[in-house]
Fold each of these.
Amino acid sequence: MPPAVALPATSFLAIDDLLGGQGVLASIPRSALDWVAVIRRGIPAAAVDALTRLTRLSQAELASAVGIPERTLARRKREGKLNSEESSRLIRLARVVARGEEVFEDLDATMDWLKSSNASLGGTTPLSLLDTDIGAEGVMDTLGRIEHGVFA
């Protein structure tokens, strides 16, 4: 069996913290493969509330960022669980927020950056690109360039 792929540990908010921690997720994934299992099972809908609370995103902003209609999110909250695709999208947002916090060393600065238009992203806001994998990759790449002092 190949070794598990470890996600980088940080002293900042981790992905699981952003999603409500052990109280919401039941167990804390320790590797990328653990996250795959969590996604396949579906994340508890309470993770949406945890993420909106910590990031101070409105329900509408979060729904738009993950490409899930607000009515669907409301229904999932009633049902108690997101499906695997929705879970994957929510984790994608949490990963970007966690990475932004590593780069900017401040959650408020990260959220301000995510909501501000960015020339290197075609003048769009990073948050508006997170509804697709390719958009999220572009945002993560831009964060990497900022971290390394390359014009972004």
Amino acid sequence: MRRCRVYNHDRFAGVLEQLDDGTYRFTYDPEYLADDSTDPVSLTLPKRRQPYTSEQLFGFFYGLLSEGANRRLQSRILGIDEDDAFGLLMATGRDTIGSVTVEPDES
């Protein structure tokens, strides 16, 4: 299993995981959920207690990745398979456009 910590406006918002069976799960942090002043990380992932699951990387997180020549270049420089979207997100998610960033969970 691979895990990332998701931040919104530099505040810990939840955990994104790629499970051993290849499925994905996003779970909001309980403290983030309890704070009415926090926004969902995406309109497609409204705040809720139940984890979100998907057979594919959630479209919102996939959209944080570069495309085309930039993706090929990043993959080559970082030594990550171009088709490994989760691996690329773990490696490049600290530097995104917008309020949401993603960092590998080292725990």
Amino acid sequence: MKPRLLLQIEGAVVLLAACIFYHQVHGSWLWFAVLFLAPDFFMLGYLANKKVGALVYNLAHTYTAPVLAFSILWFSGQTSYFWLTLIWLAHIGWDRLLGYGLKYETAFKDTHLQRV
């Protein structure tokens, strides 16, 4: 199986799991719809230059950031905000499912999965 397909399957699994957990924590689907594309605002880093844009965009589009945020919330006892990290994870899963990857500094369209 090709790595790109595996990453798309992984994205689908993350998206589905995030939605299931979101439902379990009784998250508002209105907030889910409103905030689902919020991580894409990090592409505004490209207004500075390609290097800053890729760095800022990638920080918001790796699983590391929302998992770290989830862990901080967990250990600080702020579990009522888990829903935010689940929306974030769902967004990243959706991007991977569609074949959007992390950005290279060469151009916005150059990703680790394909040239968009």
Amino acid sequence: MMNIRAYSPADKPACLAIFRSNLPKYFAPEELPLFTEWLDKPGLEDYYVLEWEAEVIGCGGFYALPENRQAQLAWGMIHAGHHGRGFGRQLTAYRLALMQKRYPGYKLGLTTSQHTFGFYEKQGYVVKEVIPNGFSEGLDKYIMEQ
């Protein structure tokens, strides 16, 4: 049975394992310290884990940029061993619903790579800009909005 709940510091090892399972195709190795800092933020809010059969197999969140009236999806991922089973779609839909409720009237955005921009297009996002090698060599940055 699937469950989505708020992240707790006890979930950090599972989230780091999920990140590592997606290296190097979906994330650049040099992003690991950034993700670790994100998880270590005091009072981290708006970050969630997806459990399947009592195991954390996904994580993702969002944050707001009030000065731009924009809310951004952040650090969304599913363990590579569970790709293609609809978990990413469910975690994204959950986060989008919360973002729209919490930040009505905000533009919704995200950054992703050439490997996952198509997934987000199916969720209603449109590519606004592509920065070649924007994350690292061979990993382009796609800036997207809804």
